[in-house]
Design goal:
The protein has about 500 residues and is an all-alpha fold. Helix content is about 65%, strand content about 0%. It has 21 helices and no strands. The N and C termini lie far apart (about 50 Å).
């Protein structure tokens, strides 16, 4: 049936040759690959292989090269984490923005390929162009009829800056989320925080515009929250990445005050559950569970590790045998902070348990749906939470074992990556494992020589073509582990990569 479909598409191309028909040929093969293939690596999915072959063939033909649809679907065909695939998408990423200088989503598309190649400066430029295009249109006055001028601060339903925050939201905030991730890899934490705050404001506006205003309409907050689920998901993911990277950088050794987040300053207001069914701006069943898993991971990790004396933390864990996730409260009133009952669990421990529970529910959601890439990565987030809690409790061996499991889950996840799986996620498992292993080795954990090598191997895998090339955490990790192993030239090389990012 699939082959018959492709044959019919080819006949249409023969009957109606041209750029759009050529683009449809590529799209048709991508579509068949999505539903028919169980693996997407090179040589493992013929429809995707042929889509890429056609894209390259048409790209080399002047009569097709300037067709935006062909370049767009060509970009999608190369958006896979394999060194034999994604570099060939760079000519498409360079050419496409020149043809679509006012289209929000199209301006963003090149960032997928730039990210895969670790070209975060170019990816950030693409997404900034996308966000700017949306903002320029919103500020043009064309949206004044949609509830108020941009910048208006009226406290009525739909009145906060009008509806300009919602203009082309599915594309605008998708680009904004990617931009923040790229800015984090360029090591500009203050700007990344600014972008996260912009998303928080838009989320508040979305809830308010949907009926969640104060006073009499407060009873409608549930419906308003549901209507704003996609906005909340973007906000959760951006908040989560910001806090996670700050914690990881701190464990590697502070690289600036902007990377330090004191314990208790994040996650004071626990994340509300989102809708996991139906659609708002995006399909809730795909993105909402992932968003909750990410923000809960950040809340728990920050609760366990944020603001701690890093050297003392690792020193205690390197020789300790403490518990894994703290006390086991089973009732909400057993978690009263500062309670007077002897042996009562603290709020921090209870937050970790709440995070484990909610992330487990998200993982089950993906597993039940057969969405195995997200299922694997969500399970890895849970392992990270447990590892961080074990580290905080003084059990270095358990922390290291759980970090290894998180690493392996992520590596296995790539094998089942299918569109439209997320290409922007959270702290990779190999990056997390590298940070934990390096800290324990430096603290003198038994067999530290082997653990140093483990850390180095994880950072190298993270930076490999099938990992996250040029990811900031892993570059800093490679610099730190190389320094610890006496590999001075390697340390200078990786510090040099980071300095180049900071200098622009």
């Amino acid at each position: 049936r699939f082959m018959a479909f492709l044959d019919a598409v080819e006949k249409l191309f023969e009957q109606f040759p041209g750029g759009n028909s050529a683009a449809v040929q590529i799209l048709a093969r991508i579509a068949v690959g999505v539903v028919a293939c169980t693996s997407t690596g090179p040589g493992e999915c013929e429809p995707l292989d042929s889509a890429r072959a056609l894209a390259k063939k048409f790209f080399d033909m002047p009569e097709y090269k300037s067709n935006p649809a062909l370049l767009h679907f060509g970009l999608h065909s190369f958006d896979y984490p394999f060194i034999d695939i994604y570099p060939d998408g760079l000519p498409f990423a360079d050419a496409y923005p020149e043809l679509v200088n006012g289209s929000v989503h199209s301006l963003h598309m090149a960032s997928h390929i730039f990210q895969r190649n670790g070209l975060f400066q170019k990816a950030a430029a693409a997404d900034q162009a996308s966000v700017t295009a949306a903002d320029e249109f919103a500020l043009s006055g064309a949206l004044a009829w949609q509830g108020g001028e941009v910048g208006e601060l009226g406290w009525k339903v739909g009145g906060i800056s009008g509806y300009a925050f919602a203009y082309n939201a599915g594309n605008l905030y998708h680009s904004l989320e990617y931009l923040q991730y790229e800015i984090l890899q360029i090591c500009d934490a203050p700007k990344a925080a600014d972008l996260s705050e912009r998303m928080d404001v838009a989320t508040f506006q979305a809830v308010h515009a949907a009926g969640g205003e104060e006073g009499a309409a407060q009873k409608d907050i549930g419906a308003a929250w549901y209507a704003a689920t996609t906005f909340s998901g973007w906000s959760y993911r951006m908040q989560g990445r910001l806090a996670q990277q700050a914690v990881m950088f701190r464990l590697l050794g502070d690289v600036g005050a902007a990377e330090s987040v004191p314990a208790g300053s994040f996650g004071g207001s626990l994340p509300l559950p989102l809708a996991w069914s139906d659609d708002t701006e995006y399909p809730n069943n795909v993105y909402a569970p992932q968003s909750e898993a990410g923000i809960w991971n950040a809340v728990a990790m920050h609760r366990s590790l944020g603001g701690k004396d890093v050297a003392a933390l690792f020193k205690k864990a390197a020789t300790g045998t403490g518990s894994t996730v703290g006390a086991s409260a089973t009732k909400i009133w057993e978690a009263a902070c500062g309670g007077e009952v002897s042996g009562m669990v603290g709020c921090g421990d209870f937050k970790v348990q709440m995070a484990m529970q909610r992330i487990s529910q998200a993982q089950k959601h993906y597993a039940d749906a057969g969405t195995w890439y997200e299922a694997n990565l969500t399970e890895a987030l849970k392992k990270q939470v447990a590892s961080a809690a074990a580290l905080a409790a003084g059990n270095g061996q358990v922390a290291l074992d759980l970090a290894r499991e998180a690493r392996d889950l992520e590596i296995e996840g790539v094998k089942v990556l299918l569109p439209s799986s997320s290409s922007v996620y959270f702290i990779p498992g190999d990056a997390f494992h590298g940070v934990i292993a390096l800290g324990l080795a430096k603290a003198g954990m038994s067999d530290s020589s082997a653990i140093y090598k483990e850390a180095r191997a994880s950072f190298l895998h993270c930076l490999s073509p099938q990992g996250r090339p040029n990811l900031a955490i892993c570059q800093l990790g490679m610099a730190r582990v190389s320094e610890a192993l006496g590999k001075t030239s390697d340390a200078k090389k990786y510090y040099g990569y980071l300095l180049k990012k900071w200098s622009g």
